[in-house]
Structure to design on (115 residues):
């Protein structure tokens, strides 16, 4: 039987709120959702590592914002973003998010185009 341990972590407030809604709608807990997702990530990473396939690591690096889309596509041997998005979905990984400051700057640039 697996032993559980408590740990402390930080999570985006809005993300936690949304996770609580999903947990309530599915009659489970945020803890159960977290454990399922973390187990999937770990088992997929380990399976890829055992087989010597580096694709999951490349996709994980992209998801975490540690690798740009063009670098990920080169490493994966693909030439368009649609294939990258499909691989991310198949790997069950979220697309990377731009930092809030970058997003705000982009919004301001777009607003200045219409001014």
């Amino acid at each position: 039987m697996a032993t559980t341990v408590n740990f402390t972590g930080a999570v985006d407030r809005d993300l936690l709120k949304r996770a609580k809604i999903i947990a309530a709608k599915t009659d489970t807990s945020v803890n159960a959702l977290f454990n399922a997702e973390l187990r999937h990530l770990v088992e997929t990473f380990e399976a890829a590592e055992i087989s010597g396939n580096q694709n999951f690591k490349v996709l994980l690096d992209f998801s975490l914002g540690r690798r740009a889309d063009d670098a990920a596509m080169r490493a994966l041997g693909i030439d368009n973003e649609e294939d990258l998005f499909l691989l991310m979905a198949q790997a069950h990984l979220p697309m990377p998010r731009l930092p809030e400051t970058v997003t705000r700057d982009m919004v301001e640039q777009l607003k200045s185009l219409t001014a």
The chain has a mean pLDDT of 91. Residues 13-114 form one domain.
